[in-house]
Please model this.
Amino acid sequence: MTLLALITGVNAVGNGLYATISALYFTSVLGHSLGLVSAVLFSAMVLAMAADLAGGRLADTKGPRQVFQAGLVVSLAGMVAMLAAGQVVVFVIAGLLAGIGQGLCMSSNVALIRRAAGADAVMARATLRTFLTAGLALGGLIGAGVLAVRAPEAYLFAIAVNLVTFLWCALLTGSLDVPSSPANGLQRPAGLFHVYRDVRFMAFAVISALISVHNHVLPFAVPLWLAITHPQLTWLAGIAMVINTVLGVVLQIHANGRVSSGRGALLSFLLGGVTIGASYLVFAWMAQAPLVTAVILVLGFVVIYSLGEIVLAAGAIDLQFRVVPGEMQGQYSAAFGTMHGLAAAAAPAVLGLVVSSGGVLGWLVLAAATGLLASMVLVVGRKFEFQPVG
Model:
């Protein structure tokens, strides 16, 4: 698992760096219009979801290591093209390759963890999530430096660094020792959309996806809400991201370690969702508060939100292994990821509506909806057939 942790961390640094500088690189350095960039990014997202579905099935039937490595190689090719993507055709190709590579890596990564870690898959994924969070934060920090420099060469250097991380991770992945078949020795290759007929799992996936709108609250909604209610406090948005990252790195493994059963995972998911909903109430409260009180409420919101996010993730990670057949982990993870991908696409519009039109009432509605959705997992979970991870 040490090697997989290194791969996760290195890849996260590159992805965090790329995510931070990509929008300005596309528009300011390459000179492409916002309309073209939006169209390419949307197309890449669609291709990523399609590649995720195909990659999940291939991970179960051909092996997750091979699919994950292929995703890294395709992503590498996308970054090579992105270095010389001034022409529209090259830019489109580069963007689509990046989307396909991302999709192939998504579900195969979860299957890879389960094959490699066996009975320790839950804690392994929690540990890797910690490396992922730290790597993304470090990459974002490096990206902030590139944005501060503003030189075209700095952007090209950042793309090259991301390219090197994909190359390095692809080479390291080739050295992973991963069983060619699940621990139980079974092989149940299903049709590409077989998982979508598993009503129990898909209900859980939809609930989780709808709650996952929270992933866009800190980077998207918080700065906007602060700008509207207390413009002089917009700097707190950056502090909020730092607090969230630190708490995630420090507490995620501990939170997962406290979940030891399927019932415990359901309760962890419920508690996390309700806590996130409660944090929205605190954030709404700061709108009419005096400046000093508003600062305290924002910091309180971040801590409550972060703890809820950690506990919710602990339950979700455990359930994604405990209610899924090991020989079909890739396909189930792909279906789960597809639901979350759709939610991620809709999240900015939903949160934008909450901030710009809903105001305090919008946050209250979002809090109530989050708590209600989290409670629904107990109803869905009554029909789960929990199984050992391994």
